[in-house]
Amino acid sequence: MIAKHIPIRSLGKSDFARLVNYITDEQSKAHRLGKVRLTNCEAYSVRDAISEVLATQLGNTRAKSDKTYHLILSFRAGEQISTEILSAIEGRICKGLGFDKHQRISAVHNDTDNLHVHIAINKIHPTRNTIHEPYYSHQALAELCEALEQDYGLQRDNHIPRQRGAEARAADMERHAGIESLLGWIKRECLDELKKAQSWSALHQIMRDNGLEIRERGNGLVVVAGDNTMVKASTLGRDFSRPRLEARFGKFDSEQAQKGKPHRQYCKDPMRLRVNTSELYARYKSEQQSAMANKKVALDKARRQKERQIESAKQKGKNRRAAIKLAGSGKFTKKLLYAQASSALKADMDSIQQQCKEARQAIYKTHGRRTWADWLKCKAQEGDAEALMALRAREAAQGLKGNTIKGEGQLKAAHTPIIDNITKKGTILYRAGVSAVRDDGDRLQVSTQSDQMGIQSALRIAMERYGDRITVNGTPEFKARVIRAAVDSQLPITFADDFLERKRQTLMNGGNVTKGNQKAERRGVTPVGQKPPPIRRNRLNTLAHLNVLSIGGEAAKKQPAPSQGLTAQKRLQAKLQAEMNAKKAKQQSKGRSR
């Protein structure tokens, strides 16, 4: 589990309403948005809660810093957590930061490989109107995460950041955009050579051989690549700061090395993957250039249309005023008509401005630039198999864990399930009723909160895409639900696990077990021509206690209730005894009343 505060880039962009609208937007994805929770708010809807928080923030006129605190709680890939535990974790995190009494709105997101929660917190106290800023929040969040992992049995994560500043931003770019950063390239390709330099001239020569240049900038030094991309020299390591270098080599010498063709140089290319993406990247650059040209044409067209509409509205206003001037009305009537004409012109201008704003937003959305990873994701959603393979070949992509289903063997005729989303790691999210099925190309994952329809859909997808021999991994409860789903849906599959397969066949046959099979089971031998032996008593009791095998099954209807275990004679005796006791109590009550 990782908790991270997302600061704003400028105070002008701080907007609680915009943040809440983003975290509560489904974005046309059925399973993106999970539980939305309002805390310490009198309102019952998100819209009213936003108004309430904004009114509270207006109560503080002295604070000049950001009044909104954006917090993200992210869990390990494949980790499924119940709504109750998520609410408890959110409460403890906010209390540990000092926001226990503050208004906040949280939303659970399921559209990535990592379950995460966005929390929008009002830093203004609802009654005191004072602003609260957590002290050393990153350290407090790390301690809280460690305690929560122990208390709730969550998967352990690293809470101490190893990278800060530009180094952390470069790592984020490589992970999210998929493009190699200059800092990462230098560390991987030539950092060891740079460390061996013993003078300024040697350092300049090594820089030149790798297509780099070290320059003065302000009071420090920067490393510049051939495309003018630059990083601070100190981000390469403490030994490359200006004071350290001058302590070793003397005063900075800007003398350039011998000019020559570099052995290698930095290019903004994709990170190295397990597959060749040269053709895909060429398509990406070509489409980006076309998108920029099309965006310029579309913006020019929208601007000209806006100018024509404004000119038409102004001409219409002039005609109104001219008609009023020629009318033989009184002074007071003309004044009123002129006011109405001005209001009509202002309304037309506002409408034109709004239409132009919406048109520009649509143009930027259609023809906007995309990162390499976002472009791959978009192409994968359009059905490009090469783009999907490239996403799954990224270093960040890891196999699904937890409750998973894997199929192998003979493929069946496949139907086309509805795709809800594709993550940047190449995981496909299929819609399955009220739940979602995740597919990483090797196995499928079903959340613990999914219903039987979701598990049946996962089995059907696994059979049709990967084969009819199914391997199930996960908790005993999940395995039991998979068995029941396979029996209810009558799918022609077999389980790789012998125990699960025997249980499936037993339930398919109505749960009937012959005495011969019981004896064979005790001997550990299956007679020739007989059905597979039933599940042993201790394992059957374990699954029966899970109370999931009886969902929608005929075998559950045949199982007697605890009261049905009594004989007819004992039930009759119990009924007579109850009637005698009731009659005796009635007679005693009558005697007391007399």
UniProtKB/TrEMBL annotation:
Residues 509-536 are annotated as: Disordered. Residues 22-154 form the MobA/VirD2-like nuclease domain. It comes from the Bacteria. InterPro entries: Endonuclease_MobA/VirD2, LPD7, TraI/MobA_relaxases, TraI_M. Residues 167-254 form the TraI-like middle domain. Residues 418-507 form the Large polyvalent protein-associated domain. This is IncP-type DNA relaxase TraI. It comes from Halomonas citrativorans.
